[in-house]
Prior knowledge:
It is built from 5 helices and 7 strands. The protein has helices at about 45-50, 55-70, 105-115, 120-140, 180-200, and strands spanning about 10, 15-20, 25-30, 80-85, 90-95, 150-155, 160-165. With about 210 residues, it is α+β, with helices and mostly antiparallel strands. The longest helix has 23 residues, at about 180-200. It folds into 2 domains: about 10-95, Phosphorylase Kinase, domain 1 (2-Layer Sandwich), CATH 3.30.200; about 105-200. About 35% of the residues lie in helices and about 20% in strands. Helix 4 (about 120-140) runs antiparallel to helix 5. It has a 5-stranded antiparallel sheet, with helices on one face. It has a two-stranded antiparallel ribbon with strand order 6-7.
Amino acid sequence: MIDLTGAAPVAEGGEHFVYQHPKRPNRLIKVLKPNSKRRRFRRPAVRRFKGLRVWHREFSEYLAALANNGRHSDRLVRLYGFRETSEGLGMVTQRITGPDGGLAPKLINQVPLHRDDREWLDAVKDDAIALFDQLQSMHVDWQDMTLSNVVVTGKKTRPRLVIIDGMGSPALIPLTHLSDWMFVKANRRQLQRFLRMIDAKAGRIPKR
C-alpha cells in the first residue's frame, strides 16, 4: 500500500485528487473524490464499476489506442495501472512535465497568458488539428473535451498538446464505436468546437 497520509494533492480534477507518487518522481497517483450522489436509475456500467466507471472508460480508450497504434502514443498520458493507497484506490499515471521540470501547464491556463501572441495561438491551434488527426487514426474518443483536460509541452515555438483526462464515451451505446463514418464526423465536429474554445479563452472572435 502507498501511504499518502499528510500529502497534499499537486492537482485536482472534477472527480479526483492527484498526488505525487512518493517513490517514483515521474509518476502521479489519481484518487477518486468521495461521491455522495445516489440515483434511482443507474446504468449497467455504474452498477458494475460504481465510482470506477470513469477509469474503466479511460482504460478502454487507452487500450483502443494501443490496439490501433501498435504502441503508446505521446499524445496521451501513459497509464500504469492501479495501486491501493491510504486515501483509497489509486490509478498510477505518467507525470508530464513542462520546460521548468514542474507539472506541464494546462491549456486553459496558458491561453490567457498568450492572448496577444498570435504566433503562439496559431501554433497551438495547428497542433490541436494534428492531435485530433491522431485521435482519429487511433479511433480514440475524447468525450470530456475541455481545455482543462490537456496540457502543453514542447517549446514555445512548437507547443505540443497531451491529453491527461476525459477519454472515453459516457454514452450507454456509443454510436461512434459502431460506425467509422460517425466516428470521423464526431471527431471533426469536436475539433471545430475545441478550436472555438481556444479562441473564446483568448478573447478572439473566430472567422466564420
